[in-house]
């Protein structure tokens, strides 16, 4: 997916000053009615907030006017301070419930949902939008419920539940056409077009975006035109129609200038620069990228700056300016990691919430069964003498079922907890710290070639690790590539203190064999850190993979100092943690697949041999 893609937007209300649209419309804050088509700057948005606060102070009564002011203040500050926006939205909701004003309740809940979205708390945003939908379904207003459908669709799209997102977008489009609201129709068509681009169906995306562009121009919605043009450029670029793509990028630049949207302008300029690179026009690409960087800095968009620095790195590489290319790439990595760390934090939070939800639901089901059992026993207490034997059997069966459910609940919790621990453990902070220090050391020694080589290896490993963490199984070929990259980086960091070899049984098709990602990484890491790195001389690590009937057997062998000497140095804590996580993963695989996988550790006179046995899983 292109780095400069546009995302989704929501609809705006008619009777209140509109809530900020969900999606990255490049900092364009819509604080006027949508029909006016005015896009305010951050400074103007602050002036709106100040004016609203002045009105709020002059209206202390808990009435509908104060609710409207609170919702609109929350809307005006949400881009800069989501926590402050939530305070105003909560106050609006509290007063609306005091008054019993259903419209205020629905609008306040909708604003809370928008605020949760900007806090990257998608699950809570979805919960609040669903509550707003229930509150708004009984209202006569024609725009509130459709706007909530659109907001929910945008969150489903963020969570990559595209079928659900398309269902809600189409419901929104149908409502917009039935009520004749052209602005809503523009938003619905644009969002559906972006969704098809996300699904790698640019042809369908172009159809919807073309219709959206025509309507936006007819309705004089200048604030949307640059976004639609940019998405059209991206879609044509995906179809390798570069002539059409660059034409739409230029139109997007002009439209963004007219709307005063610097972020949109920076994105379009960066898109032009990338196409110029494909045509070997380094001078034009550099000029456009530098202009894009200037605009991105003016609006303080870290994500856009990261994209532009990556393009500049490619520009300088094409021009043969190696040092400038490396410097630009390091800036890209630094800014990208700032964005990725927040995304990873959000993903971990989401997994933690899902884990708690699964665990609480499972425990609640068990508790409900237990309460029903007690109630049934009480009702049948008077019949104990007559039906003693029947009741005894029934209680035994019920207890057995309850225990089985409890075991199932514990297993689900163990699966969720193990997945979370694997995700958190795959990015070892000590390894990252040491690698970054090594890169810094090469740079300080002006060894640009080695620094660049190390950096490329390190960034490749980080990318592969993040991608594999989202999947339960990957091909053996992918996993071996990841492991070999890790071994190469560690070998470089330790000044080639060890060598390694990988032997694969000819009976194994590495591209057709599926394994859990990074199942061997903890053992290889232990061999390096606790075995060979403590050894006086150089060492060797041997990785062997062979087939044993319906199982695949891995062995990791080193000639390091061994477990007993490592224990004397109190260095086995990390080893035991990594081994415990791997044992839990294999235990889960055994239960799910009815297999008998295991881990064996064999002490040698010098070093350690670890054997991991897993059920053989093939793609076809």
Automatic annotation (TrEMBL):
Signal peptide stretch: none
Transmembrane segments: 20-40, 377-396
Keyword Coiled coil: no
Pfam families: His_kinase, TPR_12
Positions of TPR repeats: 146-179, 226-259
Domain called Signal transduction histidine kinase internal region: residue spans: 419-498
Alphabetical list of PROSITE patterns matching this protein: TPR
Record carries keyword Nucleus: no
Gene3D superfamilies: Histidine kinase-like ATPase, C-terminal domain (3.30.565.10), Tetratricopeptide repeat domain (1.25.40.10)
UniProt entry keywords in alphabetical sequence: Membrane, TPR repeat, Transmembrane, Transmembrane helix
Protein name according to UniProt: Tetratricopeptide repeat protein
């Amino acid at each position: 997916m292109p780095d400069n893609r546009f995302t989704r937007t929501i609809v705006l209300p008619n009777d209140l000053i509109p809530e900020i649209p969900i999606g990255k419309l490049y900092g364009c804050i819509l604080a006027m009615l949508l029909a006016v088509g005015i896009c305010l700057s951050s400074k103007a948005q602050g002036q709106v907030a100040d004016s609203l606060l002045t009105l709020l102070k002059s209206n202390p009564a808990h009435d509908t006017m104060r609710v409207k002011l609170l919702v609109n203040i929350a809307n005006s500050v949400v881009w800069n301070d989501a926590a402050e926006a939530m305070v105003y939205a909560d106050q609006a909701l509290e007063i609306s419930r005091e008054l019993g004003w259903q419209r205020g309740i629905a609008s306040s809940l909708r604003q809370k949902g928008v605020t949760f979205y900007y806090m990257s708390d998608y699950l809570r945003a979805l919960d609040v939008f669903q509550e707003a939908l229930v509150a708004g379904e009984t209202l006569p207003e024609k725009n509130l419920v459709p706007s909530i459908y659109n907001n929910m669709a945008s969150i489903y799209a963020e969570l990559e539940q595209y079928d659900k997102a398309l269902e809600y977008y189409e419901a929104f489009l149908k409502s917009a056409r039935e009520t004749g609201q052209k602005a809503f129709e523009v938003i619905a068509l644009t969002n559906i077009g972006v969704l098809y681009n996300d699904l790698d169906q640019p042809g369908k995306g172009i159809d919807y975006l073309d219709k959206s562009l025509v309507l936006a121009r007819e309705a004089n919605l200048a604030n949307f035109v640059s976004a639609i043009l940019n998405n059209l450029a991206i879609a044509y670029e995906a179809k390798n129609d570069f002539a059409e793509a660059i034409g739409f990028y230029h139109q997007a630049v002009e439209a963004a200038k007219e709307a005063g949207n610097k972020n949109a302008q920076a994105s379009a300029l960066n898109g032009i620069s990338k196409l110029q690179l494909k045509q070997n026009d380094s001078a034009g690409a550099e000029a456009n990228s530098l202009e894009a960087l200037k605009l991105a800095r003016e609006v303080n968009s870290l994500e856009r700056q990261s994209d532009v620095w990556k393009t500049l790195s490619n520009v300088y590489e094409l021009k043969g300016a190696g040092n400038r290319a490396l410097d630009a790439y390091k800036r890209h990595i630094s800014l990208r990691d700032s964005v990725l760390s927040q995304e990873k934090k959000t993903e971990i939070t989401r997994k933690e919430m899902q884990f708690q939800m699964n665990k609480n639901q499972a425990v609640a089901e068990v508790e409900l069964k237990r309460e029903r059992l007690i109630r049934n026993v009480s009702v049948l207490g008077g019949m104990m003498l007559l039906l003693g034997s029947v009741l005894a059997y029934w209680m035994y069966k019920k207890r057995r079922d309850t225990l089985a459910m409890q075991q199932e609940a514990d297993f689900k919790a163990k699966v969720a907890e193990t997945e979370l621990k694997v995700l958190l453990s795959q990015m070892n902070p000590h390894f990252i710290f040491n690698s970054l220090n090594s890169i810094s050391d090469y740079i300080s020694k002006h060894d640009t070639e080695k620094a660049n080589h190390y950096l490329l290896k390190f960034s490749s490993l980080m990318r592969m690790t993040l991608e594999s963490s989202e999947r339960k199984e990957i091909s053996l070929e992918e996993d071996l590539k990841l492991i070999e990259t890790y071994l190469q980086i560690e070998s470089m960091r330790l000044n080639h203190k060890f060598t390694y070899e990988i032997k694969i049984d000819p009976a194994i098709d590495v591209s057709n064999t599926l394994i859990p990602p990074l199942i061997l990484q903890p053992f290889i890491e232990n061999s390096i850190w606790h075995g060979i790195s403590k050894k006086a001389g150089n060492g060797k690590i041997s990785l062997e993979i062979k087939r044993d009937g319906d199982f695949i057997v891995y062995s990791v062998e080193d000639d390091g100092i061994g477990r007993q000497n490592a224990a004397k140095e109190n260095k086995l804590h990390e080893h035991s943690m990594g081994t415990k996580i791997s044992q839990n993963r294999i235990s889960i695989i055994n239960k799910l697949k009815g297999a008998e996988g295991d881990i064996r550790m064999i002490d040698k006179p010098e070093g350690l041999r670890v054997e991991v046995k897993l059920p053989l899983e093939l793609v076809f």
